[in-house]
Amino acid sequence: MLNINQLQFSYGPQAPQYDFSLQVEAGEILGISGKSGSGKSTLLDLIAGFLRAQSGRITLDDQELAPLPTEQRPISILFQKDNVFEHLTAQKNVELGLDEPKGADALLAQVDLNGFEKSICAELSGGQQQRVALARTLGRDRPILLLDEPFSALDDQTADEMRQLVRQLVTQKKWHTILVSHHQKDLTELATRQLSLSRGKLHAL
């Protein structure tokens, strides 16, 4: 279980104080909604290690994550955009997430990108680029997946396909997943449970 207990943070003396507590089971997708500026991305940045909490704990099955630098945390992140190196091929992008440069083609096949291995990512559509990023995430197979508005830049049909693919992979891999989105369709169709964020704290819906 991913457990976040009284994780506190503020950007300064006059800024709001955040106090986050939540739990995510293996194979669960926890959806978090909230107004712009409510702290959704701040929460993900704290979990990933881009920001350092002033107090509190982050544990995964009793392993302490808060003291670890970002690169040592067992976390993958899928953002709204800029998830791939556009000057590299799809294959090379996936290989960046692997300990050994093998198996990238099979991972791309799992996200329905057969035949695109040698394609330069700058020439791919937004949905195809997200699939490349998801293939890299699949290759890394880290137990925590953070989704920060991952489908916002996609058309409706592509977003529907990506939601279905993410749901299948989370169930299959038993990833502990947190989805942040202001799109209600993302939350209702993908999240197994939802919380709302307001006034620096999470609230059950």
From TrEMBL:
Keywords: ATP-binding, Cell inner membrane, Cell membrane, Membrane, Nucleotide-binding, Translocase, Transport. Residues 2-205 form the ABC transporter domain. SUPFAM superfamilies: P-loop containing nucleoside triphosphate hydrolases. GO terms for molecular function: ATP binding; ATP hydrolysis activity. The keyword Nucleotide-binding applies. PANTHER family: SPERMIDINE/PUTRESCINE IMPORT ATP-BINDING PROTEIN POTA, THIAMINE IMPORT ATP-BINDING PROTEIN THIQ. Belongs to the ABC transporter superfamily. This is Hemin import ATP-binding protein HmuV.
